[in-house]
Amino acid sequence: MAITSGLVLFAVIWFLTFLVIIPIRIETQGDKGEIVPGTHAGAPENHYLQQKAVITTVVAALLWVVIAGIILSGIISVNDFDWFNRLPDPK
Protein backbone atom coordinates (compact mmCIF):
# COMPACT_ATOMS: atom_id res chain seq x y z
CA MET A 1 0.00 0.00 0.00
CA ALA A 2 1.43 3.35 -1.03
CA ILE A 3 1.27 6.47 1.14
CA THR A 4 -1.47 7.98 -1.03
CA SER A 5 -3.70 4.92 -0.86
CA GLY A 6 -3.14 4.73 2.90
CA LEU A 7 -4.24 8.36 3.28
CA VAL A 8 -7.27 7.81 1.06
CA LEU A 9 -8.21 4.74 3.08
CA PHE A 10 -7.92 6.75 6.30
CA ALA A 11 -10.02 9.60 4.86
CA VAL A 12 -12.79 7.23 3.77
CA ILE A 13 -12.81 5.49 7.16
CA TRP A 14 -12.75 8.86 8.97
CA PHE A 15 -15.73 10.30 7.08
CA LEU A 16 -17.78 7.10 7.39
CA THR A 17 -17.06 6.98 11.12
CA PHE A 18 -17.90 10.68 11.47
CA LEU A 19 -21.27 10.16 9.80
CA VAL A 20 -22.02 7.38 12.28
CA ILE A 21 -20.92 9.41 15.32
CA ILE A 22 -22.61 12.73 14.45
CA PRO A 23 -26.15 11.81 15.64
CA ILE A 24 -24.91 10.45 19.01
CA ARG A 25 -25.66 12.74 22.00
CA ILE A 26 -27.18 15.51 19.90
CA GLU A 27 -29.45 17.91 21.79
CA THR A 28 -32.14 19.50 19.65
CA GLN A 29 -34.05 22.70 20.23
CA GLY A 30 -37.15 20.59 20.83
CA ASP A 31 -35.36 18.66 23.58
CA LYS A 32 -34.33 21.90 25.27
CA GLY A 33 -37.77 23.46 24.85
CA GLU A 34 -36.29 26.65 23.38
CA ILE A 35 -37.32 26.65 19.72
CA VAL A 36 -36.11 29.69 17.81
CA PRO A 37 -38.90 31.07 15.60
CA GLY A 38 -38.43 30.06 11.99
CA THR A 39 -36.39 26.93 12.76
CA HIS A 40 -37.35 23.29 13.02
CA ALA A 41 -37.69 21.70 16.45
CA GLY A 42 -35.14 19.07 15.35
CA ALA A 43 -32.43 21.70 14.73
CA PRO A 44 -29.38 21.04 16.91
CA GLU A 45 -28.87 23.16 20.00
CA ASN A 46 -25.65 21.51 21.22
CA HIS A 47 -23.82 19.26 18.79
CA TYR A 48 -20.43 18.76 20.53
CA LEU A 49 -18.69 18.78 17.15
CA GLN A 50 -15.13 19.13 18.46
CA GLN A 51 -15.49 16.18 20.84
CA LYS A 52 -17.04 14.10 18.07
CA ALA A 53 -14.16 14.94 15.71
CA VAL A 54 -11.63 13.78 18.31
CA ILE A 55 -13.57 10.57 18.98
CA THR A 56 -13.88 10.01 15.24
CA THR A 57 -10.13 10.43 14.74
CA VAL A 58 -9.30 7.91 17.48
CA VAL A 59 -11.82 5.34 16.25
CA ALA A 60 -10.82 5.83 12.60
CA ALA A 61 -7.13 5.43 13.48
CA LEU A 62 -7.84 2.13 15.24
CA LEU A 63 -9.96 0.89 12.34
CA TRP A 64 -7.29 2.02 9.85
CA VAL A 65 -4.58 0.09 11.69
CA VAL A 66 -6.65 -3.09 11.59
CA ILE A 67 -7.73 -2.72 7.95
CA ALA A 68 -4.29 -1.65 6.72
CA GLY A 69 -2.75 -4.56 8.61
CA ILE A 70 -5.11 -6.99 6.91
CA ILE A 71 -4.36 -5.51 3.50
CA LEU A 72 -0.59 -5.41 4.00
CA SER A 73 -0.41 -8.93 5.45
CA GLY A 74 -2.14 -10.37 2.40
CA ILE A 75 -4.85 -12.16 4.36
CA ILE A 76 -7.39 -10.57 2.03
CA SER A 77 -6.41 -9.43 -1.46
CA VAL A 78 -8.16 -8.18 -4.58
CA ASN A 79 -8.05 -11.69 -6.02
CA ASP A 80 -10.32 -12.88 -3.17
CA PHE A 81 -13.08 -10.74 -4.69
CA ASP A 82 -12.56 -11.98 -8.27
CA TRP A 83 -15.71 -14.11 -8.48
CA PHE A 84 -15.76 -14.14 -12.30
CA ASN A 85 -12.06 -15.06 -12.76
CA ARG A 86 -11.24 -11.92 -14.73
CA LEU A 87 -7.97 -11.08 -12.99
CA PRO A 88 -4.69 -12.84 -13.76
CA ASP A 89 -3.53 -15.48 -11.31
CA PRO A 90 -1.42 -14.12 -8.44
CA LYS A 91 2.28 -14.99 -8.61
Task: State the gist of this model.
The chain has 91 residues and is mainly alpha-helical. It has helices spanning 3-21, 29-32, 49-73, and strands at 27-28, 44-46.
Outline type: elongated
Measured between the Cα atoms of the first and last residue, the distance is 17 Å
- Amount of beta strand: 5-15%
The run of helices and strands is HEHEH
| Total domains | 1
Radius of gyration: 20 Å
Side-by-side strand order of the widest sheet: 1-2
Q: How many beta-strand runs? A: 2
Summarize model confidence as the mean pLDDT. Answer: 91
Q: What can be said about the biggest beta sheet?
A: 2 strands, antiparallel
Low-confidence stretches: none
Structural class: mainly alpha
How many helical elements? 3
Helix content: 40-55%
Counting copies of identical and different chains, the oligomeric state is single chain
Task: Indicate the topology.
Layout lengths: L2 H19 L5 E2 H4 L11 E3 L2 H25 L18
Antiparallel strand pairs: 1-2
Helix pairs in contact: 1-3
Description:
There is one protein chain. This protein is mainly alpha-helical and 91 residues long. It has one domain. The protein has a two-stranded antiparallel sheet with strand order 1-2. Helix 1 crosses helix 3.
Labels describing this entry:
91 residues; 2 strands; mainly alpha
